[in-house]
Design brief:
Structural class: mainly alpha
Largest sheet: none
Distance between the termini: 97 Å
Oligomer: single chain
Shape: rod-shaped
Radius of gyration: 49 Å
């Protein structure tokens, strides 16, 4: 299916989360410029086609006008000492041929100009589309690169946090063991002190 300016106007891209890219407004403005230039080219092509059609219609009417032209008056031959004068050249036959050739030349020139404008418009359209596609590809590539960098950074932070959590868990376990040992040691000291003084620890 051929690409039209309306396809560029109505084209929508999906938003990517957690990734950075170019400013969507700048991309929209650039695509709007492409659509304007494209529409100008299409309008010029339509205008040239209309001119070619008018020239072709005029060329079709030219031979009829040439045939309807009045014939030249007959040339009176003069006789001198019984030597016949040369017959005049048929003038009426040259006029239609010249008119048809001129019309054909105009049509050929118009067709050539039309083809040149069409080729130029197509080349400009292809260039604009190529630039837009390259720009879009650059946007996508940059967004993907930034996304990969962001994912790598998040993975690194996650690994650091997991390491920190593991260290805190080891610290908690060691602290609990030391605290339990300290409490048990103090309880044994109390038991020894109670046994020495004759007062059980439970009574206190």
């Amino acid at each position: 299916m051929a690409l039209t300016p309306e396809d560029v106007v109505t084209k929508q891209f999906q938003h990517v989360r957690f990734k950075e890219g170019f400013d969507p407004d700048e991309v929209d403005d650039f695509l709007d410029e492409i659509v304007v230039e494209w529409r100008k080219t299409i309008a010029e092509n339509d205008e040239l086609k209309a001119r070619v059609a008018e020239l072709e219609a005029g060329a079709g009417a030219a031979p009829v006008a040439a045939v309807a032209a009045p014939e030249p008056e007959p040339v009176v031959e003069a006789v001198v000492e019984e030597v016949p004068a040369p017959a005049p050249a048929p003038v009426e036959a040259a006029a239609p041929i010249g008119g048809a050739a001129a019309s054909a030349g105009i049509i050929e020139l118009a067709q050539r100009l039309h083809d040149e404008h069409v080729a130029e418009g197509q080349a400009q359209r292809d260039k604009l589309i190529s630039e837009a596609q390259a720009h879009a590809a650059a946007i996508v590539a940059e967004a993907e690169a930034k996304g990969r960098d962001e994912m790598a950074r998040l993975d690194s932070e996650r690994a650091t946090l997991e390491t920190r959590i593991s260290e805190l868990r080891d610290f908690e376990r060691n602290y609990r063991q030391q605290l339990r040992g300290f409490i048990e040691e103090k309880l044994r000291d109390l038991d020894v002190t109670g046994a020495t003084s004759g007062t059980p620890v439970s009574a206190s």
